[in-house]
Write a structure and sequence with these properties.
mainly alpha; elongated
Length: 144
């Protein structure tokens, strides 16, 4: 029963996280597709992930987890920002790892293979990690 209660309390945040994640995902995929041929798959993914991280930070801080975020001293906001970036960096490494593995080790070098490995498989793994990390580590304390 306790697990059901925890899921029920997390559901609104999970849904909002999904909406913001969708916006970040769209940013990531569109930029990756536009930049891949000109810059190569890895640099294109680094840039697309950077842009999508900015979208995700703003959306999660000011909408998804607004009841949890710090309104206090700048140090608390700095802590949130640093932890958010760290969690997203780990997620980005998961995505880049999936891309690098399929592109360079498996030899799946076509545009579709790069997109699937980085933006489908990598994104799915990274999203689970990011939700847990953002909810547990970044925006962990409810406002008093």
């Amino acid at each position: 029963m306790a697990a059901r209660g925890q899921l029920r309390s997390a559901l609104p945040e999970l849904l909002k996280f999904g909406v913001i994640g969708g916006l970040g995902y769209a940013t990531d995929v569109v930029l990756f597709v536009l930049l891949r041929d000109a810059l190569g798959p890895v640099l294109a993914k680094v840039l697309s992930l950077s842009a999508s991280t900015a979208v995700a930070f703003v959306g999660n801080k000011y909408w998804t987890f607004r009841e949890r975020r710090a309104d206090g001293p700048a140090g608390e906001t700095g802590r949130e920002t640093a932890l958010f970036l760290a969690v997203n960096l780990v997620g980005a490494l998961v995505q880049l790892g999936c891309l690098g593995f399929s592109h360079y080790l498996l030899g799946l070098t076509g545009p579709t293979a790069d997109l699937v490995s980085s933006s489908v498989i990598g994104m799915a793994l990274a999203t689970a990690l990011r939700f847990w990390g953002t909810r547990t580590l970044v925006f962990r304390a409810a406002r008093a």
